[in-house]
């Protein structure tokens, strides 16, 4: 078999432009010549001034080697330029281009390259000499939709240049789209093209675009195709609902995995049968221990394996004999350790596939399913059953998030630490949660994907039904190195990945806590119809900070309507803010916050409400009461305790009121607590209500969560015709 890799081929500039022209991309008028006489004839035909270039397949960067002469305005200068190019180009010179001189104050860049993970990627941005210096560019995966192209233009920091600029007309947006769609179609139709570079793409004074330079490179694809078979979704789902579980490598020693996972499962009220397997036999935790899987009479749905890596191969046929559906392979020592580990991991997977067994992991911290009371992870946390599916490529990250979910009352659909993903990949999980009716949001911590294009396509399908929230590790050079050493995988280009996320409707976050903050709001509230926010605050400073945060996160704080001002005037002192944010200035009447927040929710001018400082006020008073009891003999604990009880009752009543208003007006309402303590939670439930109450400990977390909701709502709406899109 011939495995020789053929070298890449760089097309001559005019050949590249001829291809681009066929796909509707506007290119400069030019004529190829071979001598001075032909050059003069071409220049007279095009009209002076002209640009003269030497071309050849070996000249990728012509300007740097003196093969480009611009602003040639007469025949004498033209002859000198041709002579100089001929001398410089030498035997590699294939021809000379004479081009019309195109002038414009704005230079753009557009292009295409094939990412090893995601395939063809389209690039657009600020061009000319600023491309490398400013990196003001945007990316999307081909094929492009009209919405994708609009978003690419919108993401350019210098997009103000696209409008009327220094006496020149606005750039024709339809021409920008023609360039981008042409590149997209070319990338799809001709897989032999590895790279396209149009730089500069000049905008003329009348707003028209012209490609004056172009590069096309052809060659063999470097796309890394994942040929592994997709895991059967029904079989994968069954692993989260096992009826019989064998802990292979069960241990009675505190701190060992065989003890940690077993005690977690037993303490979680799991209703299925649990078998313990250890060659030593005997008893562990008062339960009999089998010396071999073969000694168990029943079939085994799921085997939780903590044996050393070298013992796994001989275990798989034994599990096949027990009709085992899956192995939760906790064991490390596989691909994350290097070449030998990679080889062993592949052999184990091949054997498992042969036996019809699914492997979760290896090198995983486990799984849990609160809907089945099945907790089998390193995190001894038992969150409430809920609708948030949580998959983490870092087990430690997953256990932290599970513990936080339990503490804050956030319900979990299912959790898996995906480990090395030797068989079950993040893409398999995505396709499972796409069809799972109990899943309302998907939360991922990922450091790499096995099949970028499959992940992108599955994520876009899931996003059309339910939000996908992602924290991506390895976004920086240092983080990427850490990710590779941790998982044995290489992260794809961070900018391409982030662009693919946005294109697929994924809400990407920058901090781990934001994952569950967003899962809480998505599982508890209606989506906002737009990005207009009304703010109610118990104190002016917090309102100002929140308004500033809204501006930073693309949320609009609209001017308060005269009708609301008129309604609130009789309730509040004359010096209240009379504006959005609505400062209710700490008035003692407990009905004022309830009235004010409902007035804001009634208002057609807002799509969501953030309220600050009402919830958690009891903690402030509790601390004050404790101080009074300590130093003032005129007041006893018995005399002041009723005040604490009353405030707790009011706070519960206020939370209930907010939840009912959320349902009544079908708008998201996000709270910020004045203070928090061990009784405080993020999520509060109300019997009989479809929505929940959400309270964050800071304005920053509330605003970020609402911004994520708005981004997702806008993406969802804009999969319809663009005219239906709410404002950015």
Features:
flat, 21% strand, 22 helices, D-amino Acid Aminotransferase, Chain A, domain 1, 31 strands, alpha/beta, seven-stranded antiparallel beta sheet, seven-stranded mixed beta sheet, 728 residues, Rossmann fold, Dna Ligase, domain 1
Topology:
Blueprint: E1 9-10, H1 13-22, E2 30-33, H2 36-46, E3 50-55, E4 68-72, H3 75-89, E5 95-100, E6 106-115, E7 119-126, H4 130-134, E8 137-141, H5 146-154, H6 173-189, E9 193-203, E10 209-211, E11 214-218, H7 233-238, E12 244-248, H8 257-267, E13 273-277, E14 283-284, E15 287-290, E16 302-305, H9 312-321, E17 326-329, H10 339-354, E18 358-360, E19 366-369, E20 374-377, E21 385-392, H11 395-408, E22 412-417, H12 426-435, E23 441-446, H13 452-463, E24 468-472, H14 477-487, H15 494-503, E25 507-509, H16 512-524, E26 533-537, H17 540-552, H18 562-568, E27 582-583, H19 591-602, E28 608-612, H20 617-631, H21 637-665, E29 669-672, E30 683-684, E31 693-696, H22 699-717
Parallel strand pairs: 12-13, 12-16, 13-15, 16-17, 17-18, 21-22, 21-23, 23-24, 24-25, 26-27, 26-28, 28-29, 29-31
Antiparallel strand pairs: 1-11, 2-5, 3-4, 3-5, 6-7, 6-9, 7-8, 9-10, 9-11, 14-15, 19-20, 19-22, 30-31
Helix pairs in contact: 2-3, 9-10, 11-16, 12-13, 13-15, 16-22, 17-22, 19-21, 20-21
């Amino acid at each position: 078999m011939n495995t020789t890799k053929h070298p890449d081929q760089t097309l001559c500039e005019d050949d590249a432009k001829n291809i681009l022209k066929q796909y509707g991309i506007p290119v400069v008028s030019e004529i190829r010549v071979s001598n001075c006489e032909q050059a003069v004839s071409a220049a007279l035909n095009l009209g002076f001034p002209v640009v003269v270039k030497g071309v050849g397949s070996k000249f990728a960067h012509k300007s740097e080697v003196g093969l480009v002469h611009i602003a040639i305005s007469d025949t004498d200068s033209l002859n000198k330029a041709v002579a100089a190019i001929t001398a410089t180009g030498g035997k590699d010179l294939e021809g000379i281009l004479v081009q019309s001189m195109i002038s414009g104050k704005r230079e753009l860049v557009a292009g295409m390259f094939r990412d090893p993970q995601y395939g063809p990627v389209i690039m657009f941005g600020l061009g000319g000499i600023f491309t490398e210096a400013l990196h003001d560019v945007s990316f999307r995966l081909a094929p492009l939709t009209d919405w994708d192209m609009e978003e690419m233009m919108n993401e350019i920091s210098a997009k103000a240049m696209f409008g009327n600029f220094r006496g020149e007309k606005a750039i024709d947006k339809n021409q920008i789209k023609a360039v981008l769609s042409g590149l997209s179609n070319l990338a799809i139709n001709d897989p032999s093209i590895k790279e396209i570079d149009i730089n500069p793409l000049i905008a003329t004074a009348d707003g028209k675009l012209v490609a004056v330079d172009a590069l096309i490179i052809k060659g063999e694809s470097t796309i890394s195709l994942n040929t592994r078979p997709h895991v059967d979704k029904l079989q994968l789902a069954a692993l989260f609902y096992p009826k019989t579980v064998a802990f292979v490598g069960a241990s009675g020693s505190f701190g060992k995995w065989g003890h940690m996972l077993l005690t977690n499962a037993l303490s979680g009220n799991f209703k299925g049968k649990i078998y313990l397997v250890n060659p030593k036999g005997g008893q562990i935790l008062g339960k009999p221990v089998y010396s071999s899987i073969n000694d168990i009479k029943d079939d085994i749905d799921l085997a939780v394996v903590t044996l050393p890596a070298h013992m796994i191969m001989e275990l798989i046929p034994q599990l096949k004999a027990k009709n085992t559906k899956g192995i939760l392979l906790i064991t490390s020592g596989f691909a994350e350790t290097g070449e030998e580990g990679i080889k062993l991991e592949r052999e184990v997977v091949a054997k498992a596939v042969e036996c019809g067994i699914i492997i979760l992991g290896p090198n995983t911290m486990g799984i849990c399913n609160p809907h089945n009371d099945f907790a089998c992870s390193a995190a001894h946390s038992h969150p409430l059953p809920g609708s948030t599916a949580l998959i983490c490529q870092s087990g430690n990250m997953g256990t932290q998030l599970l513990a936080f979910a339990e503490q804050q009352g956030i319900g979990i659909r299912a959790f898996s630490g995906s480990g090395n993903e030797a068989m079950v990949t993040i893409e398999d999980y995505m396709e499972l949660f796409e069809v799972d009716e109990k899943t309302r949001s998907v939360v991922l911590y990922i450091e790499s994907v096995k099949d970028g294009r499959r992940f992108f396509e599955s994520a876009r399908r899931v996003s059309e039904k339910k939000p996908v929230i992602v924290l991506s590790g390895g976004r920086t050079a240092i983080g990427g190195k850490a990710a590779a050493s941790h998982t044995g995988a290489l992260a794809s280009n961070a900018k391409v990945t982030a662009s693919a996320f946005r294109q697929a409707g994924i809400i990407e976050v920058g901090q781990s806590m934001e994952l569950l903050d967003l899962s809480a709001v998505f599982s508890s509230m209606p989506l906002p119809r737009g990005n207009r926010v009304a703010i109610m605050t118990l104190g002016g400073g917090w309102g100002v900070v929140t308004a500033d945060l809204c501006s930073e996160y693309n949320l609009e704080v609209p001017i308060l309507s005269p009708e609301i001002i008129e309604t609130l005037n009789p309730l509040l002192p004359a010096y209240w803010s009379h504006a959005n944010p609505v400062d209710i200035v700490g008035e003692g009447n407990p009905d004022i916050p309830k009235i004010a927040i409902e007035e804001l929710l009634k208002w057609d001018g807002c799509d969501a409400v953030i309220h600050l400082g009402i919830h958690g006020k009891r903690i402030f008073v509790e601390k004050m009461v404790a101080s009074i009891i300590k130093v003032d003999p005129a007041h006893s604990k018995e005399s002041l305790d009723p005040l604490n009880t009353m405030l707790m009752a009011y706070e519960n009543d206020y939370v209930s009121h907010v939840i009912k208003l959320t349902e009544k007006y079908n708008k998201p309402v996000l709270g910020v607590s004045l203070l928090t303590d061990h009784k405080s939670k993020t999520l509060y439930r109300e019997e009989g209500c479809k929505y929940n109450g959400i309270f964050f400990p800071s304005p920053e977390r509330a605003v970020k969560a609402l911004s994520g909701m708005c981004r997702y709502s806008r993406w969802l709406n804009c999969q319809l015709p663009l005219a239906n899109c709410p404002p950015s």
